[in-house]
């Protein structure tokens, strides 16, 4: 599915929208819900096409599924962020796991909406994101997700490096050698992360990190 309106990028004063979903009926439903407030530039059906459309058309906002062929929505977002593209992303998905919503926000998404939400939720999400805010489907517990994001922001980049190596199965001595740290420093980082994330063992730390999407 590939729809191009062939309009001038500035043909309208409305914010410009790209929709990415491999289910045509879903994409057309999103278009119908947002048509009054957003100018549709293109509908695409896979992650690679999404990356191309965003780089080519420079939309103000993207509404995308996570599960798509060729490249999923999360990976497409990460690749665009790595390329310096700051287009606002709202994920519209069937995935109800709060940890996935946390991972999406951590990757740079500004909204996370469930497909079984009312159309008004999607409209509110898009408008709130365009106003500089963040929107998460209330059913997922926005307060919980916000708390987890706060926990993650309390971890330093070095601690996250240590955490991912712990998650890959390396022991403290191996991590110390790889990162050029002392074993005592690695252990100190692990202890601090346990305190921040509210766990009491290395196994619990890894499980907690997986739940929060920190090992992606």
Quick structural gist:
With 216 residues, this protein is an alpha/beta fold. The protein has helices at 24-34, 47-57, 73-82, 98-107, 119-130, 142-153, 157-167, 172-179, 183-197, 202-211, and strands at residues 2-4, 16-20, 39-44, 61-64, 88-93, 111-114, 135-136.
Characterization of this structure:
This protein is 51% helix and 14% strand. It has ten helices and seven strands. Helix 4 (98-107) packs across helix 6 and helix 7 (157-167) crosses helix 9 (183-197). The chain is elongated, with a radius of gyration of 19 Å.
Furnish the topology, listing elements before pairings:
Blueprint: E1 2-4, E2 16-20, H1 24-34, E3 39-44, H2 47-57, E4 61-64, H3 73-82, E5 88-93, H4 98-107, E6 111-114, H5 119-130, E7 135-136, H6 142-153, H7 157-167, H8 172-179, H9 183-197, H10 202-211
Parallel strand pairs: 2-3, 2-4, 4-5, 5-6, 6-7
Antiparallel strand pairs: 1-3
Helix pairs in contact: 2-3, 4-6, 7-9, 8-9, 9-10
The number of E-state strands comes to 7
- Derived from helix and strand composition plus strand pairing, the structural class reads alpha/beta
Low-confidence runs: 4-9
Shape: elongated
Rounded average pLDDT: 83
Q: Percent helix among the residues?
A: 40-55%
Order of helices and strands: EEHEHEHEHEHEHHHHH
Number of helices: 10
Give me the side-by-side strand order of the main sheet: 1-3-2-4-5-6-7
What percent strand?
A: 5-15%
What is the straight-line distance between the termini? 29 Å
Largest sheet: 7 strands, mixed
